[in-house]
C-alpha cells in the first residue's frame, strides 16, 4: 500500500514512522503547509515528501492519514473522500459542531471510509474494560470514574486555539465512557477552576475541571481533568459494577503515592505524556486503518462517533459557563 500523510508535526511524524514500519506499506509520502518541515521529516524518516498538499493528493494514494492543524481537517477529509481515498483523521473532525455536521453531511452518501483518531479505543486496558462490561461479569454498572491529568500545560498559543479543556482533552474521556459502557450520555453538570497561568483565563478556558455525566440507563460517570499534575501523566478509568470492577491505567507507572504504612512506592517512572502512554494504541489504531483502507473492515470509529463525543464536550462547556445541568439534546443541531 502507498499511504499519504498530511501534517508533519510531532504526532504526524510519529504516525509516518509507524506507517513505514508496517510490512503491508510499500511507501509513505508526507506533506505539510510548511514544505521545509515536510522535507526535514521525510529526510529523517527515509520517506518521500510531496512539494505541497495538492501534490500529495496526486501521488496515487491507497489511503491518507491527516495529522494537520484542526482547521485543515474538514477540507482534507472532503478532498480525500471526493478523490475516493480512504482517510484516517486525528480528532476532531472540525473545530465546532456545525463544521462537523457539514463534513458528515457531505460524506454520508460516499462509499469511502473515514476513521477518526480516538486512540484510547485501541488501548489494551480500555478494550478489556469494554469486554468486561459486555460480558456481564461486572453486573450492572453504577459508576465510571475517568481521569486525564496532564503533567504540565501546553503553550499559551495552543490553549488559545484548543477549543477549551472539555473539547480538547476531555473529549477522549467522553468517547471512552460511551465506548466502554455501551451507553449514551444524556445530561451533564460541569465546573472548572483556574489556579495556574493567566493565559487560561485570557482564552476563556480553565486549567482544571470536573464533570458529572448521567448515562441513558441512570449510570453516573465522573470525569476529572487538569493541566497541572506535577506527579506525571495520569490517565485512568474505573468501571464499577454491582458484581465487580475493572480499572484501566493502574500499572507500575501510574503517578500515585500511597501514604498508608507499609505500602511500597510504585517503581515508575511516570509516563511523561500521552505519546508515551498510548504508543501501542497508536500503532494498533493505524493497523486497523490498513484494514479499513484495504476494504477488509469497516471504520471502527467514524465521524458520527466523534460528533457524539463533541456534543458531550459542548454540553459540559455550556454547563460550566452557565453553572447549570445541561441536557445533551440542548446542544444538538
From TrEMBL:
<dbReference type="GO" id="GO:0000166">
    <property type="term" value="F:nucleotide binding"/>
</dbReference>
<dbReference type="GO" id="GO:0016491">
    <property type="term" value="F:oxidoreductase activity"/>
</dbReference>
<dbReference type="InterPro" id="IPR055170">
    <property type="entry name" value="GFO_IDH_MocA-like_dom"/>
</dbReference>
<feature type="domain" description="Gfo/Idh/MocA-like oxidoreductase N-terminal">
    <location>
        <begin position="2"/>
        <end position="117"/>
    </location>
</feature>
<feature type="domain" description="GFO/IDH/MocA-like oxidoreductase">
    <location>
        <begin position="126"/>
        <end position="246"/>
    </location>
</feature>
<dbReference type="InterPro" id="IPR036291">
    <property type="entry name" value="NAD(P)-bd_dom_sf"/>
</dbReference>
<dbReference type="InterPro" id="IPR000683">
    <property type="entry name" value="Gfo/Idh/MocA-like_OxRdtase_N"/>
</dbReference>
<comment type="similarity">
    <text>Belongs to the Gfo/Idh/MocA family.</text>
</comment>
<protein>
    <submittedName>
        <fullName>Dehydrogenase</fullName>
    </submittedName>
</protein>
<keyword id="KW-0560">Oxidoreductase</keyword>
<dbReference type="Pfam" id="PF01408">
    <property type="entry name" value="GFO_IDH_MocA"/>
</dbReference>
<dbReference type="Pfam" id="PF22725">
    <property type="entry name" value="GFO_IDH_MocA_C3"/>
</dbReference>
Amino acid at each position: 500500500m502507498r499511504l499519504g500523510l498530511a501534517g508533519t508535526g510531532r504526532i504526524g511524524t510519529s504516525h509516518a514512522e509507524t506507517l513505514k514500519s508496517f510490512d503491508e506499506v510499500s511507501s509513505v509520502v508526507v506533506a505539510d503547509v510548511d514544505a521545509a518541515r515536510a522535507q526535514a521529516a521525510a529526510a529523517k524518516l527515509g520517506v518521500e515528501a510531496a512539494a505541497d498538499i495538492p501534490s500529495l493528493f496526486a501521488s496515487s494514494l491507497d489511503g491518507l492519514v491527516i495529522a494537520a492543524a484542526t482547521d485543515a481537517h474538514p477540507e482534507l477529509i472532503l478532498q480525500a473522500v471526493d478523490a475516493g481515498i480512504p482517510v484516517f483523521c486525528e480528532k476532531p473532525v472540525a473545530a465546532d459542531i456545525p463544521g462537523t455536521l457539514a463534513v458528515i453531511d457531505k460524506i454520508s452518501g460516499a462509499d469511502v471510509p473515514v476513521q477518526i483518531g480516538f486512540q484510547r479505543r485501541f488501548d489494551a486496558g480500555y478494550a478489556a474494560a469494554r469486554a468486561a462490561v459486555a460480558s456481564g461479569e461486572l453486573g450492572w454498572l453504577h459508576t465510571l470514574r475517568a481521569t486525564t491529568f496532564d503533567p504540565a500545560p501546553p503553550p499559551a498559543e495552543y490553549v488559545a486555539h484548543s477549543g477549551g479543556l472539555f473539547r480538547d482533552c476531555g473529549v477522549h474521556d467522553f468517547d471512552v465512557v460511551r465506548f466502554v459502557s455501551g451507553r449514551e450520555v444524556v445530561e451533564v453538570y460541569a465546573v472548572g477552576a483556574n489556579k495556574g497561568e493567566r493565559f487560561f483565563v485570557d482564552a476563556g478556558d480553565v486549567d482544571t475541571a470536573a464533570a458529572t455525566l448521567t448515562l441513558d440507563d441512570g449510570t453516573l460517570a465522573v470525569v476529572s481533568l487538569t493541566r497541572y499534575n506535577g506527579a506525571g501523566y495520569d490517565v485512568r478509568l474505573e468501571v464499577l459494577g454491582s458484581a465487580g470492577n475493572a480499572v484501566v491505567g493502574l500499572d507500575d507507572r501510574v503517578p500515585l503515592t500511597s501514604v498508608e504504612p507499609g505500602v511500597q512506592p510504585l517503581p515508575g517512572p511516570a509516563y511523561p505524556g500521552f505519546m508515551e502512554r498510548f504508543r501501542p494504541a497508536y500503532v494498533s489504531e493505524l493497523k486497523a486503518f490498513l484494514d479499513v483502507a484495504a476494504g477488509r473492515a469497516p471504520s471502527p470509529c467514524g465521524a458520527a462517533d466523534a460528533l457524539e463525543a463533541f456534543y458531550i464536550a459542548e454540553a459540559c462547556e455550556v454547563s460550566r459557563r452557565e453553572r447549570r445541568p445541561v441536557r445533551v439534546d440542548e446542544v444538538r443541531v
